[in-house]
Amino acid sequence: MNSLDKNAPIKDKIRFVTATTLFDGHDASINIIRRLLQQAGAEVIHLGHNRSAREIVHTAIQEGAHAIAASSYQGGHMEFFKYIKDLLVQNGVDHIRIFGGGGGVIVPEEIHELHEYGIEHIYSPEDGHHLGLAGMIDDMISRTAAFASPPLPRDWKERLASRDGLVVSELLSMAEKDLGVSSAAFPALRGELSALSSNTPVLGITGTGGSGKSSLEDEFIRRFAAQYPGKSLAVLAVDPTRKKTGGALLGDRIRMNFLDPERVFMRSMATRDSGQDMLDTIRDFIAVLRAARFDLIVIETPGIGQGDTWITQVCDMSVYVMTSEFGAPSQLEKIDMLDYADIIVINKFDHKNSPDALRDVRKQYRRNRSVFQGADEDLPIIGTVASNFSDPGTTLFFSLCFNMLKERGLIDWPVPPKTGFSREHPESLSVIPAEREHYLSIISRAVLNYHKKTGAETAVIRKLESAKILLDDARLQGLPELVREIETTLDPEVKHLMDGWNEIKEAYEQEKLAVKIRGRENITHLFSLSLSGLKIPRIALPRFESMADTVRWMREENLPGYFPYTAGVFPFRREGEDPKRQFAGEGPPEKTNRRFHYLSRNDEAKRLSTAFDSLTLYGQDPTTEPDIFGKIGESGVSICTLDDMKKLYAGFDLCSPMTSVSMTINGPAPIMLAFFFNTAIDQQLDRFMTEKGRGPEPAELDAIRTFVFENIRGTVQADILKEDQGQNSCIFSTGFALKMMGDIQKFFIDKKIRNFYSVSISGYHIAEAGANPVTQLALTLSNAFTYVEYYLGCGMHIDDFAPNLSFFFSSGMDPEYNVLIRVARRIWSIAMKYVYGANEQSQRLKCHVQTSGRSLHAQEMQFNDIRTTLQALMALNDNCNSLHTNSYDEAVTTPSEESVRRAMAIQLIIMKEYGIFKNQNMLQGSFIIRELTDLVEEAVLKEFDAISRRGGVLGAMETHYQRGKIQEESLVYEHQKHSGEYPIIGVNTYLDDKAASQESSRQDVQLARASYEEKQSQLDNLKTFHGRHAAEAHVALEKLRSVAESGENIFEELMNTARVASLGQISELLYSVGGKYRRNM
Predict the structure, then answer these.
(1) Residue-averaged pLDDT of the chain
(2) Is residue 344 classed as helix, strand or coil in its secondary structure?
(3) Which residues make Cβ contacts (< 8 Å) with residue 255, sequence separation at least 6?
C-alpha cells in the first residue's frame, strides 16, 4: 500500500506522538512527517518543538500511542533516544516504537548504535533518497502495525484506584471504536467500572474553531493547579477525523504548558465516527475517568457549527467560547449554544470589535432566556484574553466556573472569590494601536507612490530635455518660457538630484575622494591598477545621455551611500576591516575562547560571532537529566553564568573599536546581554584596579560604565517575532518578550549605546525553517516594521532607536538571493523617509549575511564549499556589511579548524584575489539584476498587503499565517528534492558510482562532540557559582520580580540580577511573572 497515493484508511488506528527533541526548534522536518502520517491515515498527537524525553513518554502513555517520531538536529541525540527507550522500559511500555531522524547530524555509526539499543529506526539522508518521503511514511506505519499492545494487567482495578496513567490509558483505548478485536473486551468491563464510579463533575468546553479554547483551557489548568494543590484533573480533547484519509491531527497538547502528569491526565480523541457512536465512546471515557476518581473532568470539543449542542448531553456544566468575529448581530440568533451554555466566553477580547460583541451577546442572551432584570455585569458572559499571562478575565472565568459548580452541589471545595473587572478600552491591550493596524499597507503604498512619482518626474524631465534641444531653433517662438514653465513643475527633491549630479560625477572621476563619517574625514582612492595596467574604478558611474534616465537611476538605485541605498548604505566598503565574521561555539567557554583566538589570530579587527548550545538558547541551566546533560556544549558554547561569559571573551578588549561581538540568541537574550555588558564593565574595572591599585569611587564607576556603553560594539539577535514564526527558541510569552525588547531599547537610548545593535532582525532562520527568499525578505521586513510601530507606541522617537536595528539574511542558490539585500535596503529607506520621517542614519539598513545552512548536504560534503563560494560572492557583490561563510562539514558536526580555514579562505580569495571585486558596485547596470530587483520588490509589497489584511504581523501570527506559509514552502522544496525535480549535485543527481552503498556517500569527518568531562565541568562550575551567591541571588531575584510586576524597566534591573543569579534561575523567575511561550501548530 502506498498511503500517500491511495489515501487508504488504516484498519487498526495507529497513533503517533511527534515532536522535536529537547531544546531543538528545528521543526520543519517533523511538521512534514506529521502531516504525511496524518495523510496516510494515522492519528497524530503533535507536541511541536523542544520536548523532553519525559514529556514525550508521558504523552505516549496517556495517549495510548503506538509509536514516537522525533527529530533531532541540535546534538545530544544519542543520550536523548536512549533515554526515551529507557523510560519506555521503566514504565512497562517498551512495545511503543521509536523513530527518529536528524539529517546528516546523526552519522551512520551512531544510527547503527541506536538501532542496536532498541530504537526501531533512525532515518538518514540516504534513506530519504532511496525511499522518498512516501516510502519513509509507509515504512514507519508498517513497522508500527506489526506490534500489538499488551493486554490489560490483572491488577488493573487496584492500579486504576491510584490513577495509574498506563491503566487509565489502556482502558480508554479499549473503549474507543474501530480499534479491532481488543475493543470487543470493553463491554464486559462497563459493569465493573460502574461499581468503581464516583460523582466527578464534568465541565464541557466548546466553541468555534480558532476561538482559543486550548489556550483558555491551559490557563484554566494552571489556575486549578495553583488553587487546588491536592486535587487531580482529567482532560479529554476531541478533534475531528479527516473523512478522506481517516487520519487525524490531535493538536491540543501543543498549546499546553501546565500538564503535570502527576496531577493532570490528558487524552486526545479523534471523532472517527460521528453521531451516537462518538457520544457513546465519550460516555465510556467518562466512566473510566470517574472510576479512576479524578476530582474534575474537562471535555473540549472540536470547533462546532451554529447548531451543535451535543456537548450538553455528556457534561454537568457547559462553556461556550467564541470571539468577536461572528458577523452581523443577527448571526447570534443561529448559535444554539447561546441557549444552553452556562457560561459564555468572548475570547481574544483585545480585538477591536470586542466591546460591541460583548454588548450584542448580552442582548441575545437576555432575549433567548427572557432575562431582562439585573445588571449586564452579572450575566455569565466574560471577556478574556487567554493568550495573556495572568489575564484578569480568564481569572474571573475560572472563579465563575467553580462558584457555579458549588452552587449546583457538584463540588464541596472552597472556591475562589468572584472578582469583577472592566475593559472599557480593550485596544490598550494591543501591542500595535488599532489606528496603526494597517501599517504594512501604508508602507506598501508609500513605496509604490515613490516609484509612481519617479515615472511622472522622469516624463517631465524628458519633456524638458526635448524643449531644450529645440531652444536654438529661431523658428520656434516661446520655447524659453515653455522651458521655465516645465522646470517649475519639477519636484524640488528631483530638481536637487539633477542639479547635484554633475558635481557628484566629477568627484568620483578624481583619483581620491574625502568622505566624512561621524565627523571624521576618510580619504578613499577611487581607482586600483590591474596587472594589465588598467585603472579599475572603485565605483563605476552610469553613462546615460538623458538626464531622465540618470534621475530614474538615482531614485531607483543611486550610488552606494546615497538614498535609496539600493547599492549599499555606505559610499565605500570599510578599509582595514574585512566583512568576514565567523561563527564559533562548542563545549565549555574556555574551548570556544580558544577557537575565537584561532579564528582572529591574523586579524587586527576581532569580529566574533557566538553560537550558544541549545540549553543556553532555551534559558536552561545544565542538569544531570540524560536528555539535558547530553546537550551541554553541543552545537554551541554552554553559558549559564556571568563567570562563563567572562571566560568566553577572555583576552579580547570588548571596548576596543576593533572588537565586535555578535550573539545569536533570542528567548533569553535579555539575560545574556546583561551577562555580556557586565563582562565588559568588569574588564574595565579590572584594568582600572590594575592601573590605580584601588577600586573606583562611585563617580569613577559611573564613568567606567558610561565609557563601556559608549564604546562597546556588537549585536544581540533578540528577534522574538521570527522565533514564533520559524525558529522556535521563544521561551517567554510573546507579549512579555516584546516588553523586554522595548526595555532593552529604552536602556540603550538612556545610556547612549550607539555602536551596539539591540536586535538583529533575522530572515536567515526563516529561510532555514523552509521559506523561499521572497518570503524570507517579506516576513523579515514586516517583522522589522512591527518593532518600529511597537517602539513608537512605547513613546520612543524613530531616530533614537532605528540606528540600533540591524538585519540578518541568508544567501542561497535561488536567483532572488542576488537582489535580496538591495530590495531590502530600498524598501526600508523609502519607508523610513516617507512614512516615519526618519533621518539619513535611520534610513540605512545594515545587514549581516550567512551562507545557506539548508544547502549544506551530508552527501558529498566537498561540494558544499562550491555552493558556499557562489553564495558568498552574491552577498559580497551586494555589499553586505558582514558575512559568515559556512564550513563544508556543518551539515554533520561543529566545524573543524581545517574546514573553518577553508570557509574563511572563500571570503579572502573573493576579496583579495578576485580582481573585479576591487569594484564596489558591479551589480549596477545589469538588465537581469534590475528586473529581479523590481520583481522581488513587487512580490514583497504584495506580501505586505496579504499580512496587513490579516491584521498586521501579530494578527497574522494568531492564524499561524507565517508559520503555515513557511511549512508549505518547505514541503515543496523537500518533495522536489526527493523527486529529483530540484537537482542537487551529489545528492539526487551526478551521484558517485561508489554511492551504491547507502553509507558510502558520506565523507569521513571528525565529529565535534563535547566530552563527558567538559559537560561535568559545567555542572561543577554552576554548583560553585550557586554556592557562592546563594543568599545574594534570592534577594536579587525577588527584586527583579518586584520590578517586573510593577512594569518598570526589567533590563535595567537584570544588569544587577545577572551578577549573582544563573541563567536558569532568572528564566524561572521571569516565567512566573510573564508566562511561558505557548507553542503553535
Answers:
(1) 91
(2) strand
(3) 214, 215, 218, 1078, 1079, 1080
Grid coordinates belonging to 812? 542561497
1031, burial (CB in 10 Å: exposed 0-12, middle 13-18, buried 19+):
exposed
Q: Is the pLDDT of residue 644 over 80?
A: yes
Where in the chain are all domains bearing CATH 3.20.20.240? 582-996
Q: Which of 821, 879, 810 is nearest to 850 (CA)?
A: 810
Question: Taking a C-beta distance cutoff of 8 angstroms, is the pair 676, 659 a contact?
Answer: no
Rounded to whole angstroms, the Cα distance separating 831 from 746 reads: 23
Neighbouring CB atoms inside 10 A of 1026's CB total 17
Query: CA nearest 1010: which of 898, 893, 856?
Result: 893
Percent share of the chain, pLDDT over 70: 94
Integer angstrom CA distances of residue 199 from 236, 293, 294: 17, 8, 9
Q: What is the DSSP code string of 167-207?
A: HHHHHHHHHSTT--GGGGGSGGGHHHHHHH-----EEEEEE
Provide the CATH topology of domain 582-996.
TIM Barrel (3.20.20)
Query: Half-sphere exposure of 259 toward its Cβ, with a 13 Å CA cutoff?
Result: 25
User: Start-end ranges of CATH 3.40.50.280 in the chain?
Assistant: 3-145
DSSP 621: -
Phi, psi of 122 (to 5 degrees): -110, 120
* Cα radius of gyration (the chain): 31
Q: What pLDDT is recorded for position 796?
A: 97
Output the CA angle 679-683-684, nearest 5 degrees.
Answer: 125
User: If 0-12 CB within 10 Å is exposed, 13-18 middle and 19+ buried, where does residue 971 land?
Assistant: middle
> Distance between CA 738 and CA 606 in Å, rounded?
31
* pTM across the whole model: 0.90
pLDDT, tens digit (0-9, with 9 covering 90-100), for 908-967:
999 999 999 999 999 999 999 999 999 999 999 999 999 999 999 999 998 889 999 998
- List Cβ<8 Å contacts ≥24 apart for 899-906: 900/582, 900/584, 900/599, 902/865, 903/582, 903/865, 903/868, 904/580, 904/582, 904/599, 906/865, 906/868, 906/869, 906/872
- Check: CATH 3.90.1150.210 for 156-418? no
The grid coordinates listed for 771 are 521559506
Cα-Cα end-to-end distance for the chain = 29
- Dist. CA 127–CA 856, nearest whole Å: 17
Report domain 3-145's class. alpha beta
Q: Give me the residue label for grid cell 523609502.
A: 830
Q: How confident is the model at residue 526 (pLDDT cuts 50, 70, 90)?
A: very high
